[in-house]
C-alpha cells in the first residue's frame, strides 16, 4: 500500500509525469534537430545550432512538460494512487468530463504527437541516407 499521505502521493506522481514527459519531449526535439541537420542541410546552416539554441530548446521542452504535469494540480485531471495502491500517478479512471479531456489531451499531445514526430524524423533520415548511398554508388 502507499505509505505516505496524499500530498506526497501528488508530489510523487507530479515528478513521475514531469520527468517522463521531459524525456519523451527531449527525444522528440532531438529527432527533429537531427532530421533538420541531415535532411535539410540548407536550413540547418541557416539555423546554426549553438549552446544558446540548445538552451532555448531545453526551456521549451521543460515548459511543455510543465504545462501537462501541473494541469492536475489546477484541477484538470488528478493524481492519486495506482490501482494496486503501491505508487501514485495520474488517475486514469476519469470521473469527470475535465479529467477525460485531460487524459485525451495527454494521449494526443504527449504520446501520439511526439511518437509520430519521432517516427517521421527518423524515417526521413533513413530515406535521405538511402538516397545518398544510391547517388554515391552511381558515381
UniProtKB/TrEMBL annotation:
Domain G-protein coupled receptors family 1 profile: 1-139
Location(s), subcellular: Membrane
Regions that span the bilayer: 12-40, 52-74, 101-129
Annotated signal sequence range: none
Keyword Iron: no
PROSITE patterns, sorted: G_PROTEIN_RECEP_F1_2 (PS50262)
Pfam families, alphabetized: 7tm_1
Annotated membrane topology: Multi-pass membrane protein
Name used for this protein in its record: OPN5 protein
Name of the gene this protein is made from: Opn5_2
Amino acid at each position: 500500500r502507499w505509505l505516505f499521505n496524499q500530498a506526497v502521493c501528488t508530489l510523487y506522481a507530479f515528478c513521475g509525469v514531469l520527468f517522463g514527459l521531459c524525456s519523451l519531449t527531449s527525444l522528440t526535439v532531438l529527432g527533429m534537430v537531427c532530421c533538420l541537420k541531415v535532411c535539410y542541410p540548407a536550413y540547418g546552416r541557416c539555423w546554426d545550432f549553438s549552446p544558446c539554441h540548445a538552451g532555448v530548446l531545453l526551456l521549451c521542452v521543460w515548459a511543455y512538460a510543465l504545462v501537462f504535469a501541473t494541469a492536475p494540480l489546477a484541477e484538470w485531471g488528478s493524481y492519486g494512487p495506482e490501482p494496486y495502491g503501491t505508487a501514485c500517478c495520474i488517475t486514469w479512471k476519469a470521473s469527470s468530463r475535465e479529467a477525460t479531456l485531460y487524459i485525451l489531451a495527454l494521449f494526443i499531445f504527449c504520446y501520439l504527437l511526439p511518437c509520430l514526430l519521432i517516427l517521421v524524423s527518423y524515417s526521413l533520415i533513413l530515406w535521405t541516407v538511402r538516397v545518398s548511398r544510391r547517388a554515391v554508388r552511381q558515381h
